Amino acid sequence: MPTLRRHDPGALFDTARAGDHAALARLLSLIERGGPTAREVAALAYRSPSMAYTVGLTGSPGAGKSTLTDRLIGLAKSGLPGTGSGSTGQVGVLAIDPSSPFSGGAILGDRVRMQSAALDDRVFIRSMATRGQLGGLAVAVPDAVRVLSAVGFPVVLIETVGVGQQEVEVASATDTTVVVVNPGWGDAIQANKAGLMEIGDVFVINKADRAGTRETHRDLDQMLELTELDGWRPPIVETVATTGDGVETAWSAIGDHRKYLIDHDRLAPLRRQRLERELRQVLVARVEERINSLQGSPDLQAVTGALAEGTLDPYAAADRLLGIMTAHPSEPTAPAGR
Amino acid sequence: MPTLRRHDPGALFDTARAGDHAALARLLSLIERGGPTAREVAALAYRSPSMAYTVGLTGSPGAGKSTLTDRLIGLAKSGLPGTGSGSTGQVGVLAIDPSSPFSGGAILGDRVRMQSAALDDRVFIRSMATRGQLGGLAVAVPDAVRVLSAVGFPVVLIETVGVGQQEVEVASATDTTVVVVNPGWGDAIQANKAGLMEIGDVFVINKADRAGTRETHRDLDQMLELTELDGWRPPIVETVATTGDGVETAWSAIGDHRKYLIDHDRLAPLRRQRLERELRQVLVARVEERINSLQGSPDLQAVTGALAEGTLDPYAAADRLLGIMTAHPSEPTAPAGR
User: Fold this and answer.
1) Statement: residue A97 has pLDDT above 80
2) Of A180, B50, B140, B195, which is the most exposed, with the fewest CB atoms less than 10 Å away?
3) Which residues are CB-contacts of B184 (< 8 A; sequence separation ≥ 6)?
4) Which of B272, B280, B287 has the CB atom closest to A308's CB atom?
5) Cβ separation of A318 and B282 shorter than 8 Å?
6) B221 touches chain A (CB under 8 A)
7) Is B315 close to A39, i.e. CB distance below 8 A?
8) Model pTM greater than 0.80?
9) What is the set of domains in chain B, with CATH numbers?
């Protein structure tokens, strides 16, 4: 294996496309780290026209998402049902933990359960976190998906640890969002029920061999009745991920949703919408980045000084800073698109 | 009483300074509404050199914050203890409800308990929410405080409904932050204990006539031992707001914290820090505002079109938009400081 230069994204892409998972992991580390190199990697990935089909899984910690994901990986290798895609049999998995400041941290333990998958070189599993860089996961995850797409993965599963605001945002910024609950719901879900009803394209009641499954199913049904739907009625699937019961039905439901989006010309507009939301997040992150890069500069000191003295109000100060930032963009930018 | 032109902030200020609470309420409505007029009001207020001493109160719903605030109002009329300030005897109260889309909504019920205060024309009480405008409460509340300061209020109490992220941010962006808990803590506090330990300058155990007070006191003490403190050791005060027990001690503790900040030259740097944070929030809101004002413009359509086609990546697109926004600032700006 040739030695890879640490920061040559182009070479890393070539190696990753040839099936080298170490190179792919390095590309994702660069994305995770943020900054100019992340931008360069994302820009390169963006040139690739293909786009992986993304499936987000969210639900409270302990709902059994990892086990379910493990099972879905096995099915995803045969592609998404009802469509010809997925023929390369490659499956990418991003396990997102917004609370962990280090990648490969908290949820790596869960990954042990994915042993069988890890031994298969068509499967690439990666825990992702952000080290507090600007834009955070909302910017890093779409970039990571873009990298996996560019490298040839037709399907990417994105699993979050819990149902926090960031986690729900990440999981719902996918083509199909799966909300995983347990019989009896649980407290974390209870607090965000309405939010989860809004984002779910497929609902999975996992651990459906336990008491309370029927009630939870009825409860979900009733809540869906009350939810404004625009054409797609999210199916409710009961699974026992530990035994595999119902997992194929869940996978079919994901395929049905995909087919629905394609047949009704909804997939492209959905993705375009996501892209515009992402653009907005990148823009805000970029502005914050530039403020940071001004830190300690005479320009910024003059403005904050005037602010403290009361000769400038925060609005006028903000406008002055905006002017300064765009007159002297101090951050290197990605080479693509320039 | 002269008829006020709806949108003449200067005249409203003059009338409000003369003690007219209707004019003051109208100024705060303009702030709440956001946009160019809010900015004009804020800029006018900013010219006033005086700055009210701000006290934030946060804690779970039902902790008794409204009753406690009601009691504190009575004491605040005599000014802050240990200092000569507060001589006008005026007290401003902002009751913040981030979840309510309408001002005067959900927490107005609580205000009924403040009847005694409402009948006193030295006391001005206002519920505040934001109608979803950009920057939200993080921008609107400091502006509202600025208005109350400019009109002559020496003390402003800021009370939030709960301990959500926004509420904690607003309550902690004050000179003295009071965290109100109950014996046994309660679930909402439990989830955010560490965050609350960080922001509290004074801890109040309200409903201290109930069981579990001693345990909660000890618990708080132990957590403070574990918290990194830089000079000020937050006192823990037990109160029964309904009877008034301990409320004077709580008010003294607030006064002690203020004295500490002044004696150690910490108040000015603290406020400057807040101002810089606010500047950042205004800046981000301003950028989002400009993106919105570009909505539907040929410039934006060209960029999002190129983005969807893949000829521009999100980073390059963001940079192009930043350039467009600053070349043609389309929003009117505040007159001050220009």
Assistant:
1) no
2) B50
3) B210, B211, B212, B215, B216
4) B272
5) yes
6) no
7) yes
8) no
9) 50-263 (3.40.50.300), 275-327 (no CATH)
